[in-house]
Specification:
The protein is mainly α and 575 residues long. It folds into two domains: 384 residues, Up-down Bundle (Na+/H+ antiporter like fold), CATH 1.20.1530.20; 181 residues, NAD(P)-binding Rossmann-like Domain (Rossmann fold). 73% of the residues lie in helices and 4% in strands. Helix 3 runs parallel beside helix 10, helix 3 runs antiparallel to helix 11 and helix 8 runs antiparallel to helix 9. It is globular, with a radius of gyration of 26 Å. It is a multi-pass membrane protein. One of its GO terms (biological process) is potassium ion transport. This is Glutathione-regulated potassium-efflux system protein kefb (Kefb).
């Protein structure tokens, strides 16, 4: 074995590229490829690279992943999710831990071991689940929102579990309560420190870096890495997980105008290190030991997957999600998590868990993590069949799909414009839902992971099902002007205060649409001309800054999307 980190990384990447390329040819998840690659070259395979040599690289993958997730959120969106984070997430963790711990107490009577086992197995794999969601483009769907809410709470649950292990080893109940209180205060202190420092320093520092980075493109990358690693170090120092600090840092950066710059800087590191993380998980797969203990591992793995699936499914239904989405969420989050490796190893070292028990638990966690891509695919297919079998009207399906949304955007029309708007909103982490009347188009985009429903926005019951009273705005991108007028009238009659953005070919009939309730009109022909003109100017050497200035000037001169009166005047001039 070679201890040189560069050689280790070369071996890891070379093996991963080869195996992932083969699996992609068969349309299998890259995650599965990374797991197989890790198993092949790791401690229990060819022994070319060991888990201990690459553990830190893998942890960095999870850190960058959580930072990237934070970048897609905002405090407003987190506030909107609080019911699911602290309600659904807390119920899942506590109930799963109690059920598993209770079963263990009945089996061997060791309550300390039962607490560690129940707490460890209640957690799921943030890295694996979020990677699967990203692969399926499901971040903006209910599956993505449910998973993120539960995983965030699980990351918070890491703190008391870490505190409990050494205290259970000492059997001191009084110190246990005191230590949990101290751990809670540490957690609050760490998160508040990151929040305050981030709010005060991030924007000025990014402004300075931005002004100095014209001739030094490495500065934004270095700054982003500094933020991520500093926040991760801060939370670990206070007993929290590395990943949680990175997540909070991501949310803080998301509140600034430099979010996209940070996202571009971090993306290569996230993808690289996350792949290495999955390989380190694969290194824990001992095929020989699994074969020798296959009956125990299969029994416990099936039990774990079954228990977590049932609990998560039940609570999702309790919180108002439809059965298909609930069952999909249950299967997707039913595996053990990466934190199990730390917790069960710590339990074994402290004498709470017997060595044989800890080894079996580690194998169960590894095995169920390896099954995640398959469980996700199975859950998705079952969810589709369940949803098809539901005797629900289109309006009822919309209500089920949008009931957890708040401060979202409603997009009517799934043409090129509607899809582009959706991509922009998704890039900014803004919740949205799309409506269209074309069955084939809706089915196609649903399979691509978009939150799309069949429905007519000109119907009052559809608007109610969409949660329009909770929405930020409505965007009408349809081509049929009669449909647009009908939709505007229905919206105006029922929701007078909501902003309505309308796409038209030009401003010729702008007055009529404004009279019907349009807040903003975007003339398609003007925008197309501006984009083409800007592209031509770029080709002849005009700077990007000057091109943007010209576009703004022409928009102000030809139409003003924020001021109805100016756009109406322009329309009259064109008549």
């Amino acid at each position: 074995m070679n201890d040189h980190i560069i050689i280790n990384v070369i071996i890891l990447l070379g093996t991963a590229v080869f195996i992932v390329a083969i699996l992609k040819r068969f349309r299998l998840s890259p995650v599965l490829g990374y797991l197989i690659a890790g198993a092949a070259i790791g401690d229990h395979g060819l022994k070319i690279v060991t888990y201990d040599q690459t553990k830190l690289l893998g942890e960095l993958g999870v850190v960058f992943l959580l930072f990237a997730i934070g970048l897609e959120l905002s405090f407003e969106r987190l506030k909107a999710m609080r019911r699911y984070v602290f309600g659904l997430g807390s119920l899942q963790v506590l109930t799963t831990a109690i059920v598993i711990a209770g079963a263990m107490v009945l089996i061997d009577g060791n309550s300390s071991a039962a607490i560690i086992t129940g707490g460890g197995l209640a957690l799921s794999s943030t890295a694996l689940v979020m990677q699967v969601i990203e692969e399926n483009r499901s971040q903006s769907t209910q599956i993505g929102r449910i998973s993120l809410a539960i995983l965030l709470l699980q990351d918070l649950a890491v703190v008391p579990l870490l505190v409990i292990v050494p205290l259970l080893a000492g059997n001191n109940q009084a110190s246990l309560a005191a230590a949990l209180g101290i751990a809670f205060l540490k957690a609050v202190t760490a998160l508040l420190t990151i929040f305050i420092v981030g709010r005060v320093l991030l924007r000025p520092v990014f402004l300075f870096i931005s002004s100095e980075s014209n001739n030094a493109s490495e500065l934004p990358i270095a700054m982003t890495l500094l933020i991520v690693l500093s926040a991760a170090w801060a939370t670990e120092t206070f007993g929290l997980s590395l990943a949680l600090g990175a997540f909070v840092a991501g949310v803080l950066v998301a509140e600034t105008e430099f979010r996209l710059q940070a996202e571009e800087s971090i993306y290569p590191f996230k993808s690289l290190f996350l792949g290495l993380f999955f390989m380190t998980v694969g290194m824990n797969i001992d095929a020989l030991e699994m074969y020798e203990k296959i009956s125990h591992i299969l029994t416990l793995s099936i039990a774990l997957i079954g228990i977590k699936t049932l609990i998560i499914t039940a609570f999702c239904i309790l919180f108002g999600f439809n059965k298909g989405v609930a069952f999909y969420s249950g299967l997707l989050l039913s595996q053990g998590g990466e934190f199990g490796f730390i917790l069960f190893s710590l339990g074994k070292d402290s004498g709470i868990l017997e060595e044989s028990t800890a080894d079996i638990l580690l194998l169960v966690v590894t095995f169920t993590m390896a099954l995640t891509p398959l469980l996700a695919a199975l859950g998705r297919k079952i969810a589709e069949k369940v949803d098809k079998g539901l005797s629900k009207t289109p309006t009822q399906m919309i209500e089920l799909g949008a009931r957890d949304l708040t401060k979202h955007i409603i997009i009517a029309g799934l043409g090129n414009t509607g899809q582009m708007v959706a991509r922009v909103l998704e890039a900014e982490g803004v919740s949205y839902v799309i409506l269209d009347l074309d069955d084939d188009r809706v089915k196609e985009e649903l399979s691509n992971g978009l939150p799309v429903f069949k429905g007519d926005v000109s119907q009052a019951d559809t608007l109610k099902a969409l949660g329009t009273e909770r929405a930020f705005a409505i965007i009408l991108t349809m081509n049929n002007q009669v449909t647009i007028k009908k939709s505007l009238k229905t919206i105006s009659d029922n929701y007078q205060d909501i902003p309505v953005v309308v796409k038209l070919k030009n401003l010729k009939n702008a007055r009529e649409f404004y009279d019907l309730g349009a807040t903003t009109i975007i003339p398609e022909s003007y925008e197309t001309g501006l984009q083409i003109g800007g592209t031509v100017l770029k080709h002849i050497g005009i700077s990007e800054q000057e091109i943007n200035r010209i576009k703004v000037q022409f928009r102000l001169g030809n139409y003003i999307i924020a001021k109805k009166e100016d756009a109406l005047s322009e329309a009259e001039d064109n008549d």
